[in-house]
Structures are given as structure tokens and as C-alpha cells.
Amino acid sequence: MLELYNASVSTCSQRVRMALAEKGLDWVDRRLSLPDNEHLSPAYLAINPNGLVPTLVHDGRAIADSSVIMEYLEDVFPSPALRPSDPFELARMRVWTHYIDEVPTAATRIPSFHHVFGLGLRRLPRPVLEDVAAQRPLRKHMYLRMGPDGFGRQDLAEAMEQIEQSLARAEGALADGPWLNGAAFSLADISMLPTVVRMEDLGFAHLWAQRPRVADWYARMTARPSFQAAYYPGSRVSPPPAVGAPAR
Predict the structure, then answer these.
(1) pLDDT tens across 123-165, in order?
(2) Do 23 and 83 form a contact (C-beta atoms < 8 A)?
């Protein structure tokens, strides 16, 4: 049995849900409420001490980290394939997924928290915010970088620079084929999609207005049946008005 502990608006949960849908696998939805801190409950921390989502439990054994989960699904359920069989092409795909984890996925957290998830945290007295951050060891320092007005200009500018760099890299790669890794749809595409969806939700779709290959790729990604399974109603964010202007 496959059980996925996940959260509706979590970008890392979204990518795993899409991979499961692409493979046509049946799974049990163990949906957690992040605002209610269900990901920090003793029961959940027992299966994922990091207190992050998602976690896949397969026949009672837990696997954490979305990229690791997707590779695990490929190992256990190889058809239909979401990664190349050729060693060189597989290495190229993993270069992409590693880059996506390190750069755009991490960068997307900054505008996400600044404009949506961190709005309540900003109002907390500093000692309370420090206590909240201490409960999240892998995100502690990110939380503590927020002030009463959210993240500073430099943090926001650096995050947006990394996101734009990633879109530029994708635009270049898509000149060689319809998908990020070339001719075949792969985990690289699934990994990149949540960043683009989130930036659209935050009002930053203009970032690919001058990148026609990214715009075309995004249209094809959102047309896949697996997109509807991964991004069901309520799984996308709705920021306050006026979000999307460049950081000043």
C-alpha cells in the first residue's frame, strides 16, 4: 500500500502527486494541515523527523524528500518511465533535478512566505517567532530572516534573480526539445513545474512573457491529466492584491 503524507499547497507534495498520477498508481491521501502544525505532531515526526512534507509510506516503510520519493517510485514502479534508461541521459536529468532542488525550489520559498504563508508570522513578537522557528530545524534560519515587513529587499531580490535564472536556463534547454531533458517528458519537468505554478499564483507570470518556449512548455504541462490530479481545487495559493510587482 502506498500512503502519501502531504499538504495541499506544498510544492514538493504537488510534484509527488503528479508523479503518482503519471504512473497511474493508487495511493492513500494522508493530507496534513500545515496551519494546524500537523506536520509537527509526534505521530508525524516519528515517520519524518524533519517535520516536512511529503513522506511516502510504502507497505509500512517511510521515504522522505520529494526527489528521493520520485526516484523510489521509478525503481519500484518503472512503467511508465519518467526517467531515461540511457545512463548519459539519466545523468543529464539528474543534473536538472538537483539544480531545481538547489535553486528555483529553494528560491520560491522566499516570495511564497513573504506574500502568503508568512503574513501571520510577521505579527508575532520576536520571542514567539523564535520559538516557532526552533520547532522547524530545517527552516529555522529562513523564518528568522523575516521581520515585521517580511523578508528584506536583498532576500527578495536574490530569490527573484534565482527564479529568473532558472527560467532562462529552461528557455535555453527547450530549444533542443519539447521537454527540459530533450525529447522525453521526465522527472525534470515534474520537478520544475511547481515553481512556475507558484510564480503564476503570486502574480509573476510576466517572467515568462518574453520566454515563448517556457510559456509553451507550461501550457503543455498544465494540459496533462496528471496536472488536475496534483493541483486540485484548494491546492493553489491566492495572494493579496498587488503582489507580482518587481521587488524594489
Answers:
(1) 899 999 888 888 888 888 998 998 889 999 999 999 999 999 9
(2) no
pLDDT exceeds cutoff 50 at 247: no
Q: Is 127 in the same domain as 44?
A: no
Q: How far apart are CA 54 and CA 230, in angstroms?
A: 13
pTM: 0.94
Query: Which residues touch 27 (CB under 8 Å, ≥6 apart)?
Result: 2, 3, 4, 20
SS3 (DSSP) at 45: helix
Which of 183, 179, 182 lies closest to 192 in space, CA to CA? 179
Q: Which amino acid is at 92?
A: R
Domain with 18, as residue range(s), is 2-76
**229 lies in some domain:** no
Write the pLDDT tens digit of every residue in 196-246: 999 999 999 999 999 999 999 999 999 999 999 999 999 999 866 555 544
Beta bridge partners of 64: 55
Pairing of strands 2-6, 61-64: unpaired
Residues 7 and 31 in one domain: yes
The CATH number of residue 195's host domain is: 1.20.1050.10
Is the CB of residue 247 less than 8 Å from the CB of residue 153?
yes
